[in-house]
Design a protein that fits this description.
The chain is α+β, with helices and mostly antiparallel strands. It has a single domain, classed as Protein of unknown function DUF192 (Jelly Rolls). Helices cover 21% and strands 33% of the residues. Keywords: Membrane, Transmembrane, Transmembrane helix.
Length: 160
């Protein structure tokens, strides 16, 4: 292939612009991969918009560093294997209700789980585990389970 002799070289300004656009695109892809999809969860006669934590990184981050959940907000942790998934409240600054779910049915509830003191070391954080293996865990604002009268055995409908 021949190139014309009068072809202009790429200007430094264009190269800088091109590299800037490339970096922004790469950062955008990285950030987008961190966003949570949402789903609707219905239980106790109320509907919640739940952020879905369905990857190891999203499950590890959870609600750490987030603002307190509104009345109809939640986070749904989706696991690929049924197990007694253990939770801690690292980086949380507000209390939560933790609801463990198996096949769309509540199998355990930890109401009003408090946030740990800020200075608590990871090894000293309290762990919360269900009595039975589960495939989903729902975190909602503290007091939600009591407000809705949720009980073990209640159904949870997840649109996903």
């Amino acid at each position: 292939m021949k190139f014309p002799l009068n072809a202009r070289p790429v200007s430094p300004a264009f190269l800088k612009y091109f590299l800037l656009v490339l970096v922004i695109a790469c950062v955008g892809v990285f950030v987008w991969s961190k966003f949570y999809t949402t789903t609707m969860v219905r239980m106790g006669g109320e509907e919640f918009v739940a952020r879905v934590a369905d990857t190891e990184q999203k499950r590890a981050t959870g609600l750490s560093g987030s603002q307190p959940l509104e009345r109809t907000e939640a986070m749904l942790f989706v696991f690929h294997a049924t197990d007694q998934h253990v939770f801690w409240m690292k980086g949380l600054t507000y209390p939560l209700d933790v609801i463990w779910i198996l096949n769309g049915q509540i199998v355990d509830i930890a109401p009003r789980v408090p946030p740990p003191p800020v200075e608590t070391l990871d090894r000293d954080l309290p762990r919360y585990a269900p009595r039975l293996p589960v495939d989903r865990v729902l975190e909602v604002a503290a007091g939600t389970a009591d407000r809705l009268g949720l009980r073990i055995g209640d159904q949870v409908q997840i649109t996903r």
